[in-house]
Amino acid sequence: MSAKKVAMRTVSVAQRVAVPAQAVWEVVRSGSGMDKWVPVISSCRLDGHGSGASRVCVINGQELHETIETVDDATRLFQYRIHRQSLMPVRNILATIHVTPTADTESQVLWFVNLELEDESAWDNVREGIQSIYRSAIDGLAHFVGSA
């Protein structure tokens, strides 16, 4: 019996926000409080801080178990790995948030994820679902930072 080939995929959203990059970065780099700016997250708990910290976020009653992999202040790059989730037919999930200044009071947030797709027929729904979550999260982040 041959092993079924699993497709590695990337989903990304890049969006400009009218908030300085450093202010956005300070919120992202903490790894905590995502439930305050990601609309679909009802709660989020962070244990530890920086690389190696663990995080559990809840979406629609389902837990996502994550580990923070990278917090790079020089490049404003934040990565986290999702170890356990049951929301989508995906695995081996590594997500990245990169914040770049575009002007003194504006920045671009690039949020992308590399993942293995377990069910090829689910690709359109997975891609659209993740893009929708990331767009609303970036909007929520800009609003949260802008109102702080």
Question: Describe it for me?
Answer:
The protein has 148 residues and is α+β, with helices and mostly antiparallel strands. It has one domain (7-146): Alpha-D-Glucose-1,6-Bisphosphate, Chain A, domain 4 (2-Layer Sandwich), CATH 3.30.530. Helix content is 23%, strand content 47%. It is globular, with a radius of gyration of 15 Å. The mean pLDDT is 94.
Features of the shown structure:
alpha+beta; Alpha-D-Glucose-1,6-Bisphosphate, Chain A, domain 4; 148 residues; 7 strands; single chain
DSSP, total strands:
7
| Discrete helix count | 2
How do the strands of the widest beta sheet line up side by side?
1-7-6-5-4-3-2
- The overall pLDDT average reads 94
Q: Rough shape?
A: globular
As a percent range, the share of helical residues equals 10-25%
> What's the number of domains?
1
Task: Briefly characterize the structure.
By secondary structure, this protein is of the alpha+beta class. The chain contains 2 helices and 7 strands, in the order E-H-E-E-E-E-E-E-H.
Could you outline the blueprint of secondary structure elements for this entry?
Layout: E1 7-17, H1 21-30, E2 41-47, E3 54-59, E4 62-72, E5 77-84, E6 90-103, E7 106-117, H2 123-146
Antiparallel strand pairs: 1-7, 2-3, 3-4, 4-5, 5-6, 6-7
